[in-house]
Each structure stands twice: as structure tokens, then as C-alpha cells.
Amino acid sequence: MKRVISGNEAASLAVKLSRVQVISAYPITPQTTIAEKLSELCGSGELDAKFVKVESEHSAMATLIGASSTGVRTFTATSAQGLALMHELLFWASGARLPIVLVDVNRAMAAPWTIWCDQTDSLAQRDTGFLQFYCWSNQEILDSVICAFKIAEKLLLPCMVCYDGFYISHTHEAVEIPEQSDVDKFLPPRDAEYRLDTKDPRTFSGGTLPANFMEIRYKLQKAFEKAPDVINTTYGEFDKLFGRSYSAVEPYYTDDAEAVLLASGSAASTAFHAIRKMRQSGIKAGLLRLRQFRPFPEKELLSYLKPNIKYGVLDRDLSPGTGGVIAQEIRAILNRNNVRIDINEFIAGLGGRDITVDNVTEILLKVRDDKGDKLQINWVGLKN
Amino acid sequence: MPEMAVSESSMDWNKTGSWRSSTPLHKNITPPCNFNCPAGENIRGYIDLLKDKKTKEAFELLTEANPFPAVCGRVCYHPCQASCNRSSLDREINVRKLERFIGDWGMENVNKQALPPTASKKIAIIGAGPAGLSAAFYLRKQGIAVTVYDENSMPGGILRYGIPSYRLEKDVLAKELDRVLHGIEFKSNMRFGSDFDISDLLGFDAVFLATGAHLSKTMNIDGENIPEVESGLNFLKTANSNGSGNLKGKEVIVVGGGNTACDTARSAYRFGAKVTLVYRRTEAQMPAFAEEIEQLKKEPIKIEFLTAPKNIRKTDGGKLGVTFIKMKLGLPDSSGRSRPVPIADSDFEMSVDKIFTAIGEDPDLSFFGNARIKTGGEFDFSDIDERLKARLFVGGDILPNPRTVPHAVGSGRLASEKIAAFLKGEVLTQSEDIEVIAGPGDINFDYFSMINLTKRGSHPAESGFANMDEASSEAARCFSCGVCDHCDNCHNFCPDMAVIKTSNGYHVNLEYCKGCGICARECPRGSLKMDGTE
Question: What is the distance of C-alpha A167 from the center of its chain?
């Protein structure tokens, strides 16, 4: 059944369809309507889950760490400062190998105060050990959240599903809502090997001596290395049941392109539209959409990045002192693999400034016409 | 090695109890309502029963301490409410209405309670007020034959002859007295010392003297003996006996600031008088109950503070001419209250029809020849007839306790316990344990939220709860201060699962309790404390 719903409603319905058992969330714009919808679903009994009210995001994540340790399926949603407040517990969730799913509705980090979109909030959590996915449509949100539970539970890794605040969270689109019975087939109840059980008391994540800590960390890294296979298998199963397929990186018009933009989230959908228009004018532009940030899709990206094509990387984020986070990650994999490709780095759309079709067209022309005199960082639409 | 840092086998071997430096102890402490009840009621106990709509059980528990719930639900000043910890959150529990609800239920549903047959022991009680009748009630319940003497024609004492009917309806009193007096011999119009004497009491195994305090104190001023100057208590007695006392259009002055003064002023107003109450101190020093003062102030009664009568004389027109003098507050006197000091040249005159004095009462012990209260408040038994002395017990308003109905009830019940012990050749011993009272600091307010408050009536005799639901929802507001109500918080919060539920409470498994204190912290009511041992 297709329904016209907002991005946040798509996330909420996915949580319901995934039969989540414990939810804990604290309101923060632009995430709030997820928590509201879920509390309604819990209140009405449509979703048989415990909704734990808390006084902060820190407590929300702490609650889920406890709940998830008992073997149940858990969910929370947040944005910006809320995610930052969870920071220390995000490490705990991954270190304790708890498959918590978190939706982050991307919002810029204050100060100055803002409620508008950029992706600095989630990208800044890149070292916490969460899987990270970025969506560009409401359908993708619904599908990604359902897949996230399956991937997280297979890998024993927590997972963050991210999408742009307001641009996606509050925009309505037609979304195919799968049947509960089909989702049940795809996503069986969680079966935790180790769980808090008063009849079989064990210690979890207790004091670990230097003799063992590194090995635990090694296993965490190994889980991330194993992730691409698990993710692809899951997408395959999803495709079979629901007829929609996903991958870590999606290429559009890249084969014969002279200039390709690497982008994610709503900016990628704007770029997609701009590139189609440019193609109509005979300009050979292309798009690489980054859907997955952790694990960083090294293999997939390397298969698309060609030395004879010029690349621009669009970062809707800023790591002050370095520049764009995604550009930095791209440079790292290129260097590690001895691939010599120059990339142009663009910072755009911070704090909810629109990234327009004209912006993207301008960026791609600049990339195409690059004569090697590129700037370290190109600021898009910056006022004097 | 598992993916996560988890112990591969059970951690049962890890007896975390060895870490403990402090041990949780489930121990009830005294709720402030119970502690402050002069009658000794288990208030928390009957509120809990009422919460579950067990009115019969609540009535039985209440009347274990006080045979007069309907009366006290109307006239008691309820110090329990004043000490209620819930007032730190929203408003105190309305114990008055709950007590009244139980009392009213008793009037409707409890008629003659079954009594054990009387054995050979016989007790005489002098005075059929709340002290005498409470003693009678509890002695008779133990199978002891009781004869109650009273100088009046009807039982009740101060309840009948002192408290106006707008505070205590006569039919309520009659019904409650009927139940209390069941199985007890009542001898009316028998004044000790004139209608009977010690020789009539020799056949009794013990005698309880509870004749109250009915002698109005005198003002010691000129004109005090003019017939139009009357004691307030006397006026109340006449008014309560036959309803006479037409004061229509009369100008009346009431002197005093206690409960008798308030009752006198308000009764005189109800008989049509134009009333002025004069008191030599200020409102803050009035000995009357706060709510009596509150009610008094709502009536069209003029109040003159810092004013005292200086002399009274009859004028030609038949009225009373009264000279007053204004006072100011000086240094505290022996009662701790500021002493009123006359202000020179502040005299003023008033012309009135009647003066009622209500500046305090003393017990009338003329049948023993003289006053017998020693400093310190003990009754002086010396030089009382030897035949009576060893068997004589004294209580109620004769003793200088606060002169209230619940104090009288408590005093009467205590006398019954002393007498019962005496009859067995024993002396009543009282527990020497220091009572720990649950204060606001013992309450974890996080567990209680403010709720819509039940609307309260303007006066105790004017309203009660409309129905069982109202009463039980008020009872459900109770914190159960200091008394475990098996909420399971200690059990649920224990990180070591060391608080184990038993059939009647909780047991702490000391093998695993590591003394973290979370259970005590999460106890909403202070009935679980860390005792610092082990």
C-alpha cells in the first residue's frame, strides 16, 4: 500500500513494522515527530513496545543499552546536540556489541543556535563504532530502518540511519508500506546469544584488563570489515521480498562523465536533478551518491573512481582545521590504495542554507574546468 | 572468546556481599500522623484500609484507640493533618474527613457490638465525658463491669454540654454514645460529693475520676458578680441543654481567646446577639485551635485584640457599663507568650447587655477539699481517704494536658490500660524505645506527583465525603510515611537481585548485597534504611 507520508513518519512506521520492543527518546527538533508518533503507537497499543520517557538523550541511550542487553530490539531517534549528548554512550553501545538502531535527523551543531540541516552532527560520531547510512528519500528511510535492524543484529553492531532535517524529515512523499507479514519474514525476532538473565547471572563489559582489551577492539574492527558482505546479503534478501535494492554507493551517469560530484543525502537528490538537466545541455556530468559512511565503502568507491575523470566532493559538514569530513575520508582511501586522483572539495549548505540546482551546476562546471589551480576548500555561495 | 566482553559462565560464585560496608534494614518507623494523634489512633493503618474500601476493617482499627470516630471526625483539631508530610508536596491528607467517613459508616452499620460477659471485677467511673466513657468502653470490652456516674441527666460531658450543635450535631452524638455505652451502667444526676461519696465506691475494684474542668477562671475585677456577667461555659451548657438563651438584639461581650471563647461568641451570635470578642493579647497568641479562629473570623463578630476589661457596673438604664484598657505586648511570661502590659490612659467605655467570660477553666475538685494538681501536672493523692487512694485513677481534663477531646479520649484509654493491669496486680509498663518519626526527609518525593485535590468543606460539621470513591481516592494520596506498603521498589532496583520477596515483606540476601544503598534511596517512604553495620 502506498501512502504519502513525511520522512519522520516513514521512520516511525519502519520501527513499528520491525516490532521494536523498547523505545526511549527525548524530543529535539527536527526529530521530535518520530518520538511523538511512536509514543502514540505505543499508547494506542498498535505497537507492543515499552516507551521509556527520559530526561535527556544521554538517559535515552543508557536506557537502550540496558534494554538491549536483555536481548530485546531497541530504537531511539535524535538530532544534533541530542546526539552529541549521547556521545560517550555511543562508544558503550558499540563496545558492548548492542544492535541498537538510532535515527539521526541531521541538524547542524550549535553555536550559534540553529535547528536547520547539515550533517556535522552524525559525521562527528564517525569514531564511535556505529554503522552509518544516509538516505535521500522517504522510501529509503523506511527500507533502511528495517534493514538496519537486520544488519545490526547480524553483526552485533549499533546502527545509525541519517537523513537531512526538514529537507527530508518534514517533506511528504509517496511511500510503499510493506505488509507486516512480509517484514516478519524478512526480520525475525532478535535472538541474542548473550543476554542479561537473572537466572543465569553474568558480567557484561566489566573491567577488562590490558591483556584482553585490544582483542575486544580487534573484534569490533573485524565486525566492521565483515559488514559489507552482511549488508549486501541483507539488501539482496530485501530486494527479493520487496523489489527494491540498495548499495553502499550509487553511481549515476558516471561511465562517460567528465566531471563527477560525490554527494549524500538531500544534496545528492538535488545534484541528480541538476545533472540530468546538464546532460540535456550536453554537459557530461555524473553523480556518485554515498549511502554508507561506516564502514566507509572503500572497495565500492575505488571501483568507481577513475583517474581520467575529475571529481568534486560535496561536504554538508565541516571539521574545522581540516575541511570536509567526506573529502578527508576519500583522500585517505585514495592514498592508502596508491590511486592518484585529485579531488575538489566543496563546503556547502551548512546550517540549512539551500543547496540549489544552480549551485550544483556551478560546482560541476568548476570541477570540469579545473586546471590544477584548485583551492584547498571551495566555499559554495559564501557571502563577502 | 565471545564477540563482547561477557563472562562465559555464571557469576553466582562472586559473592558480592563481601564488599558490603553497610546493610539495608527494612524497619517501619512511626508516621507523623500516628505520633501526633493525642488519642493514639493508627491513622496510617486505617487510611490504608480505606484506600482499599475496607471500611469495616478501618472502623475496627480506629475504634481500637478511639470509640468516638464520628465525634472526632467533627470536633478534633487533627494535629495529624498539621504534621502530614504530604503538605510538602501539595496538601495534607484530609484525615478529618476520612475519620468522619469511618465514623458515619459506623453509625449506619455498627449497632450493638458483641461484648464478653462480665466477670467479677467492677469499676466505677466518675464523669461521662470523652475520658470517662473511653475508659468505660475499653474496660467493658475486656469483660469488666463498669458503672459510670455523672452529675448531668445525659451522658457526653463536654461533648454534649460544651460543644455547640453547629460543630457537633446532637443526633450524631446520641448515636455514637448509644454504641459506646452498650453494656455499661450509666447513673445520671449523680454528683460526686453530694449525691454519692467514697462509701458508695468501696464495692468497686477501682475508680476512675474524670470529672473534667468546669470552673471558669475569674477575672478579679469589680462588678464580676453582677448576674449579667456569666461564664461562657455556663452559657454553652444552658444553650446546649435546652436551646434557651434568646439574645436577640442584645449587645454581648465575650472575654477570652480560647476555644470556649470562640464557641461562646459564635453561639451567642447564633442566638441573635451582636457580639464583640475581646482578648488581651493578639491573634498569634490565641490558645484556640487555628481553625476555630478561622471560622470565628468569618462570622460577623467584632474582635478587639490587646483589650482587657477593667471594671463593670450596672448603669441606670439596666445596661452594663464596662471600662476597658488597651494593652501592649511585653516580655514573654511563663507560658512563653508575650505578657500583655496595660497602656496608661488608654481606658475606654462600652455599654452592653451581657458579658460572657471565657478566660480558662479549672477542674472542680471540691469533693476532695482542695486543689490537687502539683506543679509539673501530677495529681496529688496525699491525704485522700486511704480506702480509695490505692484504687483511684485520674484522667481527662482534670490533668493539665491540653484540654481537647482527643487528649481526653487518649487519657481515658490509657487509664483503662492502667486499671486492667492493676486488676491483675501489675503495673502498666510503657515501651522505652525511642520512637523514630518519619519526616519529609524520609520521603522520596520523586515517587509522588501532585494530583487534583479533593475539595474540602468549609467546616468539619458541615461536610464529609460524598461517597466511598471520594474517600478512597483521598486515602490513596497517603505516602504511608515510614510504613512499608510492599511497593517492590527495593526488590526492583537492587542491582544484585539481593532483595528477595517473602510472604510478608522482603528478605535481604547478604551473600550478594554489596551495600550500595540503592534500595534505601529508592524507598519512597523511609521504611528501609542503611544501618551502617557489617
Answer: 15
